[in-house]
Amino acid sequence: MQTLQQLQSGQLHGSKSIKLSCGLSEFPSEIFELADTLEILDLSGNKLSSLPADFGRLKNLKIAFFSDNLFTTYPTVLPHCPNLEMVGFKANQIVNIPAEALSPHLRWLILTNNKIESIPASIGLCTRLQKCMLAGNRLKELPIEMAHCKNIELLRISANRFEALPSWLLSLPKLSWLAIAGNPFCQESQREDHLAEIAWEDLEIKEQLGEGASGNISQAVWQKQPPLEVAVKIFKGEVTSDGLPSDEMKATIAAGTHPNLVQILGKINHHPELKQGLVLRLIPSHYTNLAGPPSYESCTRDNYTEGTSFTVNALVNIAAGMASVCTHLHARGLMHGDFYAHNILIDHEAHALLGDFGAGVLYDISSEVAPALERLEVRAYGCLLEDLLNHITSTDVDLPIVKNFTQLKNECMQAEVMNRPGFDEISKRIQAMVPISN
Q1: Model pLDDT for residues 378-414, shown as the tens digit of each residue
Q2: Cystine design at 234: which of 157, 277, 308, 399 (Cβ 3.0–4.6 Å)?
Q3: Topology of domain 288-437, per CATH?
Q4: Which of the four CATH numbers 3.30.1130.10, 2.40.70.10, 3.30.559.30, 3.80.10.10 does domain 4-152 have?
Q5: What is the DSSP string of 210-265?
Q6: Distances in Å between the alpha carbon of 109 and those of 29, 253, 379?
Q7: What is the pLDDT averaged over residues 270-293?
Q8: How high is the pLDDT of residue 1?
């Protein structure tokens, strides 16, 4: 992070990226001196409520973040930046989005946790839009014109006021990661859980293992007989980009038990701050993330460490395990919503564990939309197969089973949603393929 003093003194001349968080109430005019080079501007965590009329002078700007500020209206000057593709206004107080404010160049739009009641029909002109984050607003509907946004792959509309799921969403050809929990139409899908309760005083908290948007995970010892090392996740109360932490907790519990899921041991009671939490089996340290999350450049696709390669055996283990766990989840009426390689852990034998139900949603498996919801997630599974196949070892690339997996990947990612196979069929097809690799 840079300082205002550095900017004003000219020390940042020629910078491609600027991040300032220092209580700004006005846009620093010195930023325009970087117009020839500036590509990423992050003014999150300030007190800004407007942008200057000549903001378009930043002709090379690609990414602009204004999260945690005081904007009440989405600025109409943003489309004046011809190369601006990614815009973030998370956690402001935005109520109004003028029709002319949405640039057709947008690929990634973040409006999480505002007070937005409607999206203008002009969003239908944003045909390059791939990622749209609208969780935690006051939306009751989306404009039908948004159906023209055929490139949308990730959509977050959790924690809004939708009485029904927009029907056209289910036919978007590339939609793969959808978060819809925390809306009125989801209420009927809530279910009682019968998870064991574990008293907070019976847990000895050790070091923190990680912190995410929805909560903190710590290593702990469950003081039972015999004592057991566990992981404890304590949920925060804030709206995340995926939705409400309480919905994540419900989805995690509803996922149940499966060899490719982290085992839940119980839910916490008697927390001193009355927070919700779960106790999970501690994942062995030799498990690592299959991939890293998407970058600004990749937008919706995961990133793999340079040199990553997978053998056919690893491909089969990961693909079969994930098809099996997705079959299990959707049989229980649960869509993961964020089925990504970065939410999958693997060990040295390519045994895979799926985690992070932050975007999970319970649905009625007898409903008309159930088959389409499953097949949206099938496309996400197809993206995983594509990633694995793109990193197959050179010695295995011409094996017949690789060609069979490529065909399966193509079917999972086809544009006609209902022509994709379901997860049960995918699992059976993989089981039939496996002898071919011997």
Answers
A1: 999 999 999 999 999 999 999 999 999 999 999 999 9
A2: 277
A3: Transferase(Phosphotransferase); domain 1 (1.10.510)
A4: 3.80.10.10
A5: EE-SSEEEEEEEE-SSS-EEEEEEEE--S--SS--HHHHHHHHHHT---TTBPPEE
A6: 25, 31, 21
A7: 92
A8: 87
